[in-house]
Amino acid sequence: MASSMISTTIVSRSTLAQANMVAPFTGLKSIVAFPSTHKNVDITSIASNGGRVSCMKREQLIKEVECLLHQKLIPCFEFELEGTINGRYWTMWKLQMFGCTDAVEVMNELDEAIKAYPNDFFRIIEFDNIRQVQCISFIAYKPPGY
């Protein structure tokens, strides 16, 4: 009887020790564990902000901005200093245009920004001041040669 009590005591101690142990991180799972039957090597199917960016014409931009202003969104401009569009870090041009109700005013501000930085990409972003979020952004200007 004593021998059976000792063995159960040892078993319960080892189980308690195992319960407190955490397995070390062994890295990401191997691709062998998750086999793939189809590998897509066509990079044109990957969603991207780069590549060939087609900007709207001025009349289309005015209509888009009018629609966004009608929805009570606040416009703002951002530009990318490097001249390449990678979508990571954009610099804000001035501040948001609080109280702006006219699309022509937004376009005049865009023209002023382009005069200051003619070799950079510009995008228009729109904020919702109620939800405190950015709702939309789109390329408004791309430099010559792109």
UniProtKB/TrEMBL annotation:
- InterPro entries in the record: RuBisCO_ssu, RuBisCO_ssu_dom, RuBisCO_ssu_N, RuBisCO_ssu_sf
Gene3D superfamilies from the UniProt entry: Ribulose bisphosphate carboxylase, small subunit (3.30.190.10)
Q: Name one matching Pfam family.
A: RbcS
Q: Where in the cell is it found?
A: Cell junction, Plasmodesma
Homology family: Belongs to the RuBisCO small chain family.
User: What protein name applies here?
Assistant: Ribulose bisphosphate carboxylase small subunit
Tell me which residues make up the Ribulose bisphosphate carboxylase small subunit domain: 49-143
Question: What organism does the record attribute this protein to?
Answer: Buddleja alternifolia
